[in-house]
Design goal:
Blueprint: E1 16-20, H1 25-36, E2 40-45, E3 53-56, H2 62-76, E4 81-84, H3 99-127, E5 130-134, H4 147-166, E6 172-178, H5 204-215, E7 225-228
Helix pairs in contact: 1-5, 2-3, 3-4
């Protein structure tokens, strides 16, 4: 594992960081920020992350996700942090969305998150590391045609809060609640489900700095939850 004191004033390196969904969007931005901060990012995704050590796995398959975490930790001698950026959505009315598509949103966003964290816990306990989960502003409020996404992200909120209570004093737990970002997340949707052209969205690089800030807190200091949005975010509060 990486244990580096950065030359910019003694700020600790984030160490070895597993990033789910790190091949694109916020995950890729966090992996990039971790590397720039002197850490060792490792990506877990369906696709290769250019320039990063990548373990391929489908987070909808919880057992495969757990095995992938074990391979990553074995290859790098453990883990110091996990960031669960992987997430998907299929916006549609409940009655108009095939059951398999609805299920997959929950499998990736919620069950995949839980599987990765569960597999990482033995390593994070040894390193006194940190779990940073990625919820959403739609994990705190609801909108039409998003039953699967809202259910999954509300689940991440409950999972993270319960996990923080369970691991108090052993592994730090932070929940990041981002608003809309300029990523490929909205690509391929019907126009009515895309942000309007004038929507004020954050860049994933800016949100990644907040994630990195949470990871770099000293032992015993824990940021419990962070809501990070554009100052003109439409989905908050």
């Amino acid at each position: 594992m990486t244990e580096v004191i950065a030359p910019d004033g003694g700020v600790r390196s984030p160490g070895t960081v597993l990033v789910t969904g790190g091949a694109s969007g916020l995950g890729f931005a966090v992996a990039t920020a971790v590397r720039k901060a002197g850490g060792t990012p490792v990506v877990l995704d369906l696709a290769e992350a250019p320039g990063f050590d990548t373990e391929l796995a489908d987070l909808a398959d919880a057992r495969a996700a757990e095995a992938a975490v074990s391979r990553i930790a074995g290859r790098h001698g453990g883990l110091d942090a996990v960031f669960t950026a992987a997430g998907i959505d299929h916006p549609a009315p409940l009655a108009g969305l095939p059951g398999a598509d609805w299920d997959r949103v929950v499998q990736v966003n919620l069950l995949g998150t839980a599987a990765v964290v569960r597999a990482a816990l033995p390593y994070l306990t040894r390193s006194q590391g940190i779990v940073v989960t990625c919820a959403s502003t739609l994990g705190l409020r609801a909108v039409p045609d998003a039953t699967a996404y809202c259910a999954s992200k509300w689940g991440v909120v409950g999972f993270t809060r319960a996990l923080a209570a369970e691991l108090k004093g052993t592994v730090r737990v932070t929940m990041v609640v981002p608003g809309g970002m300029h990523t490929a997340f909205f690509d391929g949707r019907d126009e009515k489900y895309k942000p309007p052209a004038d929507a004020k969205l954050n860049t994933p690089e800016d949100v990644a700095q907040a994630v990195l800030f949470a990871m770099r807190q000293p032992p015993g200091c824990e940021i419990k939850e962070m809501v990070i949005t554009s100052s003109e975010e439409g989905s908050w509060p």
